[in-house]
Amino acid sequence: MTALGTDTTVAVVGTGTMGQGIAQVALVAGHPVRLYDSAPGRAAQASEAIVRRLDRMVGKGRIPAAERDAARARLSPAEALAELADAALVVEAILEQLPVKQELFRSLEDIVPVDCLLATNTSSLSVTAVAGGLRHPGRCVGMHFFNPAPLLPLVEIVSGFATDETAAAAAYDTAAAWGKTPVRSADAPGFIVNRIARPFYAEALRVHEERAADPATIDAVLREGSGFRMGPFELTDLIGQDVNEAVTHSVWTAFFQDPKFTPSLAQRRLVESGLHGRKTGRGWFDYAEGARRPEPHTAGPCPAPSSVAVHAELPGPAAVLCELIEEAGIKVTRDRTPGESEGFVRLPGGARLALTDGRPATGRGPGTTIRFDLSLDYRAATRVALAPSATATEADLAEAVGLFQALGKQVSVIADLPGMIVARTVAMIVDFAVDAAARDVATPDDIDTAMRLGVNYPGGPMEWVDRLGARWVRGLLDSLHHQNAGGRYVPSWALRRRADLEELVL
């Protein structure tokens, strides 16, 4: 264990929301904490704000008053950078601008002891670049906390190209001693979370831009259909559209404008309009007092079919639908349609109900196809999206809607879009995760831990690829690429290799 002792001073530079949060974490863990901000008087104001939060914690019974009093005695604002000379760890949480961070660390190197850890809380800049101008870059490490730092457990410990292993280990163990859950990451663009989470926002924005569904419906399908804590539109409104778009642009630039990371024009226009989300009173949704949130598109009640036929085996997690249909009292028979290899449900009127595979419902040979979206857990899901082909009649769609309503699901009907909503989002997240693991950005376990704790995913993407199968994910992305040439949906070599290995095992 190489955690810093609680008798050592932790300094935090930058007193915004993140700086105050990190200082509070170190303070509650027992360290003397010194706060510095280049703006005169800001450190003293931040110290007072932290004490007020400690007072509220006492009022809620989370800490005893004596602990609050001791913490208050250990907290002190600094009026000059030189007052950080005795720090064992300095965490910067200042502007997300590389030259500013580099200048700060060069100044600190002339002040703090040679064994003092220098940590950057950057969310998207290169730790290697931040440390690039230092005489001793080995002591510079990324400690990326998540907002709000006192509440969210995850801390990404990022090793730059020159970071000493002892420095990374000390940062990791110190974060653990503070009650956090640290994960190790290489210094790759976006680290773990901000790299792998990009498709959660990007695919939702793409669906909206292609006018397949509105933001409220997209949010509801991802939230109620697969267990994501928040939908991407409401989440980016909470984060701040300007902040989210800046991270997306930073990662895209760092990857030399790889089309997989291309920012959204719709989000750019929102930012240019000053509609940054909750903090400005409006983003994708209106947060003014009395404003009504738009409701997701939900189909009206339809009668359930008395029986359906199931052809072949429904793929992946959709296989449980046969059980759910029978449990709902609907008769299930087996349909052996010649020449069909894809598993699907045959509705009484003759339409096929099939899990999306990245191809549109329209053009799937003779007859009518209605696609349903992926769910990571169909038994727990309370909403499912349907996409009918151009040949589907109202009667066909009513049978499909009624079937899922009989299973206890609300139904959102969207346009016939390849990959729909959940499937394309999950497939892209899985591809990014598998690629990151193959490139040693982080271990598979750390990737899953980071995505569960950092962005509250209903599971880890490395777990998802095991459940869905790499072949299914690869096939969906290949189909999406065929429909949308340009490179965005090309499966990574790591996913292709994993899918090939699955085929060898079978």
Spell out the blueprint of helices and strands:
Layout: E1 9-13, H1 17-28, E2 33-36, H2 42-59, H3 65-74, E3 75-78, E4 87-92, H4 98-109, E5 117-120, H5 127-130, E6 140-145, E7 154-159, H6 165-177, E8 181-186, H7 193-196, H8 198-209, H9 215-226, H10 232-239, H11 241-254, H12 265-272, E9 307-311, H13 321-327, E10 331-335, E11 344-346, E12 352-355, E13 369-372, E14 383-388, H14 394-406, E15 410-413, H15 422-438, H16 444-455, H17 461-468, H18 470-483, H19 493-505
Parallel strand pairs: 1-2, 1-4, 2-3, 4-5, 5-6, 7-8, 9-10, 12-13, 14-15
Antiparallel strand pairs: 6-7, 9-11, 11-12, 13-14
Helix pairs in contact: 1-2, 2-3, 8-15, 10-11, 15-17, 15-18, 18-19
What does this structure look like?
The protein is α/β, with parallel strands linked by helices and 506 residues long. It has 3 domains: 9-187, NAD(P)-binding Rossmann-like Domain (Rossmann fold), CATH 3.40.50.720; 191-293 and 424-506, N-(1-d-carboxylethyl)-l-norvaline Dehydrogenase, domain 2; 307-413, Transcription Regulator spoIIAA (2-Layer Sandwich), CATH 3.30.750. It has 19 helices and 15 strands. It has helices at residues 17-28, 42-59, 65-74, 98-109, 127-130, 165-177, 193-196, 198-209, 215-226, 232-239, 241-254, 265-272, 321-327, 394-406, 422-438, 444-455, 461-468, 470-483, 493-505; strands spanning 9-13, 33-36, 75-78, 87-92, 117-120, 140-145, 154-159, 181-186, 307-311, 331-335, 344-346, 352-355, 369-372, 383-388, 410-413. Strands 3-2-1-4-5-6-7-8 form an 8-stranded mixed β-sheet, sandwiched between helices. Helix 5 (127-130) links the parallel strand 5 (117-120) and strand 6 (140-145). Helix 15 (422-438) packs across helix 17. The longest helix has 18 residues, at 42-59. It is elongated and about 80 Å long. The mean pLDDT is 95.
